[in-house]
Design brief:
The protein is mainly α. Helices cover 65% and strands 3% of the residues. β1 and β2 form a beta hairpin. α9 runs antiparallel to α10. The mean pLDDT is 94.
């Protein structure tokens, strides 16, 4: 039997304060995605980010939270080998039945709205400059109403992944404090599916198949977005630790330390890799490394020694810098925001590394296996699911804008006005294709 978590007044207050600052992660990621794109699509990217947050929050409240639920609430459970497998929440839609007095379930719903919005912003980075606004809203609705809540229930809502410790003695069960898997790998795998379905931007690959550099238009947006993301991430990690792991207030300082160490060490790792490979550090890849470090340390930030957070961050930053090039050069994946590398790859690394390096209270052997089962579920189930849902959207609604619209820029094509009307933005007619 799963008990309903009970929070002290201090935990409730700290969780509330943490959730109040966590939307800064949304603003940060929106700015990063905008800065990494071209000037002629900047307004479209920011408008799409606002639409994503709006659609995701509403869809999650309408039915997404019903599927996610909260530990101890009503759910569908099946017996396999005499063990209960909790696989789907069955709470009422529109948050009906929740006690609106700061209960843990209501705080969980609030965090879920922010988390699913963040997950929805991740694919925007991979689909930038060619993804129709209407298709963005439809895809986000599916993500918020079904894909995200389903896995979030398994990880956060008392589902079967979190029960691996109780049922099978695998450590303390699957742990994902700040959403490395539930938010970032889910969003990153959706970004991968969209990159496949949309295809590369016009002019990204030459006639010889080699990728062409299409630099972002505003490094200040990118770097300022990283700083905003750090603040929002710290709040999201702290809230998740309180709600889903029941950590005591004294441990929040460790979460803050590890969150900062993960971001900064990852930025240094990415800067070192780009300095070694290209002769000079690359600002956009360094920023991507920063976000990748936040993603990687989110899973077990409440249980990592600071030295482990530094190691995980350094490795994450190096992975991001290398994988961005790998995906473009060898797999022909055009991902303007580096979403697949930053969120999917770094998230998977963080889940697995945390299973080895984390120090979990009352934990036994098998924590790495529990984390690996979560990763296998993400790749083996969530990726096909999100690809299939977005394939249907592409089949019936159409994902990509017309070639002429892409050529003139998303701002003019879909919004009728540019982000920088006082400047002249060029087309890509000079590109090979």
């Amino acid at each position: 039997m799963i008990l309903v978590p009970v929070l002290t007044d201090v935990q409730t207050l700290l969780c509330t304060v943490s959730l109040l600052v966590s939307p800064l992660a949304l603003a940060g990621l929106a700015l990063v995605n905008t800065g990494l794109g071209r000037a002629r699509s900047a307004a479209h990217t920011m408008t799409a980010a606002m639409c994503i947050v709006a659609v995701a929050a509403c869809a999650y409240v309408v039915c997404g939270h019903s599927w996610q639920g909260f530990s101890g609430e009503a759910s569908r459970t099946i017996l396999i080998g005499g063990k209960p497998w909790n696989w789907l929440g069955t709470t009422r839609p529109f948050l009906a039945g929740l006690s609106f007095d700061g209960s843990p379930a209501l705080l969980s719903a609030w965090m879920g709205m922010i988390a699913v919005s963040l997950a929805g912003l991740i694919p925007l980075g991979s689909g930038a400059e060619r993804w129709r606004l209407a298709a963005i809203c439809i895809s986000t609705t599916l993500l918020a109403a079904w894909t995200f809540p389903l896995f979030a229930h398994w990880a956060w809502g008392g589902g079967w992944l979190s029960q691996l410790g109780t049922n099978y003695g695998l450590g303390v069960g699957y742990v994902d404090v700040g959403g490395s898997g539930s938010i970032h790998v889910v969003g990153g795998l959706t970004a991968l599916a969209l990159a496949w379905l949309l295809g590369p931007r016009r002019g990204k690959f030459g006639y010889d198949g080699m990728p062409m550099a299409i630099p972002g238009h505003n490094a200040v947006y990118i770097l300022f977005g990283c700083l905003l993301a750090l603040v929002g991430w710290t709040g999201l990690n702290a809230a998740g630790a309180i709600l889903f792991e029941g950590v005591q207030p004294g441990r929040l300082a460790l979460i803050g330390v590890n969150t900062i160490l993960g971001a900064t060490s990852a930025a240094l790792g990415a800067a070192a890799i780009t300095k070694f490979r290209f002769g000079k550090p690359d600002s956009s890849l360094t920023a991507n490394g920063w976000i990748g470090g936040l993603v990687a340390t989110s899973a077990t930030c409440a249980f990592l020694p600071p030295a482990a957070a530094i190691f995980i961050g350094l490795a994450a930053g190096a992975m991001v810098a290398l994988c961005v090039e790998l995906f473009e050069l060898h797999l022909d994946i055009d991902d303007p925001g580096g979403s697949v590398s930053v969120h999917a790859v770094a998230g998977i690394w963080g889940l697995l590394a945390g299973g080895v390096l984390g120090r979990f209270p009352n934990g036994g052997d098998g924590q790495l296996l529990a984390q690996a089962i979560g990763v296998a579920t993400l790749i083996g189930f969530v990726l096909p699911l999100t690809y299939g849902l977005n394939w249907l959207v592409d089949r019936f609604a159409g994902m990509r804008v017309a070639p002429d619209a892409e050529r003139q820029g998303m701002d003019l094509a879909e919004l009728g006005a540019g982000a920088y009307p006082e400047f002249v933005t060029h087309t890509d007619d000079f590109m090979q294709r």
